[in-house]
Amino acid sequence: MKKEDIKKVVLAYSGGLDTSIIIPWLKENYNNCEVIAVSGNVGQGTELDGLEEKAKKTGASKLYVVDLTDEYVNDYIMPCLKADAQYEQYLLGTSHARPVIAKALAEIAHKEGADAICHGCTGKGNDQVRFELALKHFAPELAIIAPWREWNIKSRDEEIDYAEAHHIPLKINRETNYSKDKNLWHLSHEGLDLEDPGNEPQYEKPGFLEMGVSPVDAPDTPEYITLDFEKGVPTAFNGKKMTPKEIVLACNEVGGKNGIGLLDIVENRLVGMKSRGVYETPGGTILYAAHDYLETITLDKDTMHEKERVALTMGELVYNGKWFTPLREALSAFVDKTQETVNGTVKLKLYKGNIIKAGVWSKDSLYSDDLATFGESDYDQKDSAGFINLYGLPIKVQALKDAKKLK
User: Fold this and answer.
1) Contact 72, 97 (CB under 8 A)
2) Given this model, what pLDDT does residue 237 score?
């Protein structure tokens, strides 16, 4: 589509630095087009405060704030939790939030009769891929505008210069200008001193952490919690029935105050470069640990080992923006089958950043204390001799053959 034919644009709007300056930039560079801002609420909290006034003041004709929190948890986070999917230890907090937001963008673009959808992702990051692959699935006929691939702005400092020149209010300054992404699952920190992997994150500095505290500042007394699961999905926290979203939020609170879920990694981005990030995922870290603990007694060996391979593949698919693909759907179907027996209760001890196993129970447990005991049991230890002879036969044959060669 030619630039002059674009009259109405739907913008993925967070109110942060990138999207704040995009509104006036679009109007300057796309024939004073109408800009409709869309904020997908995936649990950013106070970041959504005052967005409508800000969006309209900077040139948007309207702002949609779409509550996606339940859909995000139920349809995106839970499938990843059940799969134990992660990417290089990263629990996919930004990765699985992008497809649900992109889906909402496409729906509103169709409703409004827009000509294009715009996002503020940089050309260096993964999010541009995640947004655009999802948009190709839901709105393949619409143009996609990515200002970072068009404008002459080269840095976040230059973005701030543009904002100041256009009288756009910002909640950040040049000294605390970390690149952050927040939702109900996690908070990421990138940029500034973190760009040097030799710098220790400032966990104890007031204001750096937002979802919890450093393990150094966590309580000196451990805290016990229990989580109940049905078919791999959490259903109760400390014995109280809750929705998955409520459990995520409860785990965020208890995990945050105990210093749980801090991750400092140099990850391999989809676009080819390495990037250093610090992540806060207190509730997610607890839920992954609890779910994995329960699976140790409810999944058979072959299924568990195959599921570990699926977890790696699914983590890469989600990280790489391929949520809406036949393979991801097929892997989720496999995972759902494996979760039929993942029912039970897990007890954990939280202490200064550590998650300590404190007990696990399930009516579907495959663990038999009668078989595993060091005491008397029905297990006939003589059976192992024949098994070892058959299992080791290839090794024995090879050794005999090699011995003949030496003569």
Assistant:
1) yes
2) 98
Please say if 95 is a catalytic residue.
Answer: no
- Enter the pTM of the model: 0.94
User: Catalytic one among 14, 18, 20, 228?
Assistant: 18
The pLDDT tens digits for 103-116 are 999 999 999 999 99
Q: Based on the residue annotation, tell me whether 332 is a catalytic residue of this protein.
A: no
Asked if 149 is an active-site residue, the reply is no
Catalytically annotated residue among 98, 130, 156, 328: 98
Supply the pLDDT for residue 173.
63
The pLDDT of residue 294 is: 98
For residue 116, what pLDDT is reported? 98
Contact predicate 179/193, CB 8 Å: no
* Those residues with Cβ within 8 angstroms of residue 280's Cβ, 6 or more apart along the chain or in another chain: 186, 187, 188, 189, 209, 210, 211, 212, 256, 261, 262
Active site residue 383: no
Comparing C-alpha atoms, which of 207, 178, 191, 182 is closest to residue 17?
178
| Annotated active-site residue in 179, 188, 332, 362 | 179
